[in-house]
Amino acid sequence: MVVELVRAGKPFTAVTDQWGEVTWTRQLAEAMQSLVFDMPHHPAGVYHLTNASAQPVSKYEIAVACAAAMGADQALIVPGESEAVLTVQRPRYSHLRTNKGAALPPWYEALSEYLKQQYG
Questions:
Q1: 3-state SS track over the chain
Q2: Which domains does the chain have, with CATH numbers?
Q3: Which parts of the sequence belong to the RmlD-like substrate binding domain (predicted)?
Q4: What is the pTM of this model?
């Protein structure tokens, strides 16, 4: 949805008070394949795989990064709070620990690469 709005040049609101992770499914699938085929080398347990991030990012930060990667006007993205924007409540903080398993590239690099491949 962000890509379509940015490409259309339409302003929209993105929330600043919900944080999480960004994960490119292609990189996730590659990391999962590595874990499955190299299972004897990895301890058993639960793995959380997301693109690397020093800290969780807000939906607003993700939207701004998307616009920047597309060379679009970042001013189209208006910061807002979830209570005023969303009709369905979501968790404010959904950060995953990724301290074991495969290390994926930083989220902003993955986002930029994805957008380049998908939209040129």
A1: CHHHHHHHCCCEEEECCCEECCCCHHHHHHHHHHHHHCHHHCCCCCCCCCEECCCCEEHHHHHHHHHHHCCCCHHHEEEECHHHHCCCCCCCECCCCCCCCCCEEEHHHHHHHHHHHHHC
A2: 2-119 (3.40.50.720)
A3: 2-117
A4: 0.81
